[in-house]
Design a protein that fits this description.
single chain; alpha+beta; Mannose-Binding Protein A, Chain A; 3 helices; about 20% helix; globular
């Protein structure tokens, strides 16, 4: 491990003030944003519909159809700046915590995540009428939801 990597890891542990799993050392937590150093993206800590109160995500998660997602993206871009988008299947699967109980996510990093399916921006490889979701109850991906289905949404942007 280089000195730079060791410095970044120490910064992460001090900055977040928590005992992270070894697999979570790629994250830097900054208020309502999580920087993913490995994938070079930034996550919103809260699901669409929730609000960061300084300590956790509060409020009711709003499930959206894919037709409603562009409106949520416009609001996020206007209020938070940047170009927010739906994550890819690989990106969303990368924050699944296999060792965690349901929801299958590190709740110190992503508090109050619903143990339910979340949209990705990827179409199903089996049927182009369907889209991929990642279920945080099981940690598995599914290729079976029609765009009219309303699911939870977590937004991401490129760094």
């Amino acid at each position: 491990m280089t000195n730079l990597h060791l410095t970044v890891l120490c910064f992460i542990l001090i900055f977040t003030g928590s005992n992270l799993h070894a697999s979570d050392s790629r994250f830097i937590v900054k208020e309502h944003i999580v920087v993913d150093l490995e994938r070079k993206i930034e996550w919103l800590r809260c699901t669409v519909g929730q609000r960061w109160n300084g300590n956790e995500c509060e409020g009711k998660i709003v499930n959206l159809s894919l037709d409603m997602v562009p409106t949520a993206l416009d609001i996020a871009n206007e209020q938070l700046g940047g170009k927010w988008r739906l994550p890819s299947q690989a990106e969303l699967k990368s924050i699944v915590c296999k060792e965690c109980s349901s929801p299958k996510i590190n709740e110190e990093i992503f508090p109050n995540t619903d143990n339910a399916p979340y949209w990705t921006g990827d179409q199903s490889i089996f049927n182009s009428k369907f889209y991929v979701s990642v279920n945080f109850h099981t940690g598995f991906s599914f290729n079976r939801f029609s765009p009219i289905k309303e699911l939870a949404v977590r937004l991401v942007r490129d760094r």
